[in-house]
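ESCALATION

Customer reports they have been waiting on this structure for their group meeting. Please prioritize. Original submission:
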Amino acid sequence: MVALIRQSFAAVAHRSDELTSLFYGWLFRIAPETRELFPVTMELQRTRLLRALVHVVQMVDRPDELSIFLRQLGRDHRKFGVIGEHYDRVGEALLGAIGEIAGPRIWTRDVEEAWGGAYSIVAQAMRDAADAERGPAVWMARVMEHRRINQDLAVVRVQTSQPVPYLAGQYVSVETPQRPRMWRSMSPANAPGPDCVLEFHVRTVPGGWVSRAIVSHARVGDVWRIGPPMGQMTLDPRGRSDLLMIAGGTGLAPARAIVEQLMMEGTDRKVCLFVGGRTWSDLYDIEGLRRSAQEFPWFTVVPVVEDPEDGRRHGAETGTLAEVVARYGAWADREITISGSPPMVRATTNALLDAGTPFRNIHYDPYHTD
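Update from on-call: job pushed to the front of the queue and completed.
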């Protein structure tokens, strides 16, 4: 089943835009009531569907890890108002779209059965998790602070009426009043606390409908909706290995939350954080991180910039995060987390593997920014 799924998906992946458009065409034709669950603009939604599909295909032979992802996804989909029969229609649309793109030479009976069997497992895992969940589908949060760091970056703090049960390093999806039904995944930059406050670091990205709205138009008093926590880039309470954390841009947020958790709990593990950007101004929280490193001897911060002049002026390492981290060696004795843009995560993972880092030591989440 795994081989058939991967081979057939590889044969259609180069037509990904057509595949995702065709899928939603199928879905809205056979289940027109689902159209109201999605935003008016579907470009972002199509991208997210493809990323989720790629992730499932990549993980299909790692059932334990895939199961965690699917259970989280099932709980998360409650926020959309998804009901059981929607899973059947999604499966019909997915297989119909892949089959139409693949054509009869690739889409044989064996391939169709493999996809059908795999989708049944995926859908059942998501359904079971959704049915078993007793917590809220969403948490309402009020914006209590919106601080513009520069033209394309803001720090936003929101407060919920009851705790969101996330762990440091996880992410949540957020819906704002400026962009209804357009959910954006973001990692809280703080560890969970009794005050029910979550801090988000948001940078505008090209074509980013939600990020632009948050940075430019979010206001104190706005009410956001927050979906259930997801992600596996969290501290293993049984872990004793030292940590290497690599963060690019606002990928600093989950790393910062994990470091804060360790500060609150106390630790004897060494933690080294490489934080990178193109220029020094991109390292928006570097002074606070340096103060923390002075206070906690187990914590080391290494700033990285791509601009050589900035590097010389500020005493930072120069190059991409992938290049700089790999220069230090394989880090084979450390548990490693990577957070940032998808290209940065891929490049850094590949550089570490080339340097001899065991793949099992590397952790990242395939979550979706806009």
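Sent to customer with the following note: The chain has three domains: 2-132, 139-226, 242-363.
Escalation resolved.
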